[in-house]
Amino acid sequence: MDQLISYEELVRKVQQQEDTVAQLVKIIAATNHRISELQVKQESMEKVHLINKI
Question: Is residue 1's pLDDT more than 60?
Answer without folding.
Answer: no
